[in-house]
Amino acid sequence: MTSREVSPNQGLIAADPNDERLRVALNTYAQPVSYSDYVDDLRSQGYRVLGPETGYVIEDSTGRRLHEPYRLHGVYDADSGEPVWTSKRGERLRAGINRRLGNELVRFGPHDDWEHRNDRAIAGALCGPQLPVIKFGPQNEIDELLTVESMAGEWPYKRHWGRLYPDNPVNP
User: Within 13 Å and on the Cβ side, how many CA atoms surround 1?
Assistant: First the structure.
C-alpha cells in the first residue's frame, strides 16, 4: 500500500500505476506481483481502485476511502524488555492507544509479533524491520531510529534482534 503524496486525495491509500514506490513494492515479493494481479487481489478482498481523476484512490465496499494505519513495531515491558502484546492484552492496548489518538489509527498488533515479518513471499515490502521507527521509552523519552543499525542496537531490540530478524545482517 502506498499513500498519495500529492493531490488529488493526498494522504489516502492509492494504487497509482505511475507511482514508483508501488512498482518497487510489488517487485519486492519473492515472486514479483503485476499491477493487474494486485488490483485483482484488492477487488477479491472487496476493494476497488478508482480512476486517475481521484489519483487511483482505493475504496472499500462501503465507499470509504482509506489511509494507512499506524504500525507498531514492538510493545515491550519497560522493566523486563519482554513482549507484552498478547491477544487479550493486545486488544486492550490497541483500544487504549486509539482512544488517546482520538481515532482508529492502530488496527493490528506489532510487526515484531507478525509471523510473516521475515517471509518475503508474503510480506513483500513489509519484510524485515520497518524504518523509520519512533521509539517511546519508559521514562517518556522519544527517540527516532532511522537505520537498521540504530534499531538493532537499542534496548530492547538488541536483546531480541537475533530471534526477531535472524536473516538481517546487522549484529547488535
Answer: 16
Angle value at C-alpha 121, between 156 and 124, nearest 5 degrees: 65
How far is Cα 72 from Cα 148, in angstroms, rounded to an integer?
Answer: 16
DSSP run (H or E) holding 164: helix 157-164
Residue 8: asked if its preceding bond is cis (omega within 30°), the reply is yes
> Taking the domains of the chain in order of start, what are their residue ranges?
2-59, 87-164
pLDDT digits (tens, 9 = 90+) for 43-80: 999 999 999 999 999 999 999 998 888 889 999 998 99
Contact between 137 and 143 under an 8 Å Cβ cutoff? The reply is yes
Q: DSSP string spanning 76-144?
A: B-TTT--B---HHHHHHHHHHHHHHHTS--B-S--GGG-TTTT-HHHHGGG-S--SSEEEE-TTS-EEE
- What is the bridge-based pairing of β-strands 13-14 and 133-136? unpaired
Residue the block writes with cell 513471499: 121
pTM above 0.90, yes or no: no
Using DSSP bridges, classify how beta strands 58-59 and 133-136 pair: parallel, antiparallel or unpaired.
unpaired
d(CA 153, CA 155): 7
* Chain-centroid distance, C-alpha 27: 17
